[in-house]
Amino acid sequence: MSELARRLNQCKKPVGDQGKVVVDDMNERHYELTGWGLDKIKIDKAYKMLDIGCGGGRTVNRLSKAAEEGEVYGIDYSSDCVRWASEYNKELIKEGRVHISEASVEKLPFEDNKFDVVTAVETIYFWPNVEENIKEVNRVLKKGGKFIIINEIYDDDKFRERNNEFAKNSNMKIYSPEKLKSLLKNAGYLNVEMEIKEENNWICYVSEK
Ligand SMILES: C[S@@+](CC[C@H](N)C(=O)[O-])C[C@H]1O[C@@H](n2cnc3c(N)ncnc32)[C@H](O)[C@@H]1O
């Protein structure tokens, strides 16, 4: 397996010592990207929020700081990520403001209409059935709640060579801006808005239930 394939495999499901290195790196490298995306919504201090594919847990931490009277849930299907994200947020967990658990986006362990905001940072490429999975996200959102997808890769001519390498070395799905937008609309989301930072290949979608 090439070094790139190994890294992408760890991005898909970080595990073990190598996974810990990748997760620490993602906590650093995704911070600016995540901030760029989160700036597109207003976070009320009492919001209940969910971060899907929470990895090392930095986004959960950041959301919790923005909602000091709210609650933030993080889920990941890697039990190692659950452990690392729990460690990263241990004080907030003690205070009862953060909850991290092991689950897949395919079946979210939450009741209908629970969250004001659901975030998915750098994870949707790996979801097993995106059409169905975004419907499952919709189920747990409150009416009027927002679903934010933040990605540092979308299908575009400028980055085609690099992105083809990524796709060749993993089974990640790299969506065109219009494709994911139409999937969100077909899944029943309203007011689907998309913003692109072309020079970085960054993309963010904000959709509403
Ligand atoms: C590239 S990492 C991004 C981690 C974190 N969101 C960040 O920005 O640093 C992708 C994460 O999504 C998680 N993931 C992938 N598929 C998932 C699924 N079906 N359900 C839950 N988590 C998933 C992986 O375990 C991994 O932690």
TrEMBL record:
Residues 50-149 form the Methyltransferase type domain. It comes from the Bacteria. Keywords: Methyltransferase, Transferase. One of its GO terms (molecular function) is S-adenosylmethionine-dependent methyltransferase activity. One of its GO terms (biological process) is methylation. Gene3D superfamilies: Vaccinia Virus protein VP39. Pathway: Lipid metabolism; Phospholipid metabolism. Pfam families: Methyltransf_11 (PF08241). CDD domains: AdoMet_MTases. PANTHER family: PHOSPHOETHANOLAMINE METHYLTRANSFERASE, PHOSPHOETHANOLAMINE METHYLTRANSFERASE ISOFORM X1. This is Methyltransferase. It comes from Clostridium acetobutylicum (strain ATCC 824 / DSM 792 / JCM 1419 / IAM 19013 / LMG 5710 / NBRC 13948 / NRRL B-527 / VKM B-1787 / 2291 / W).
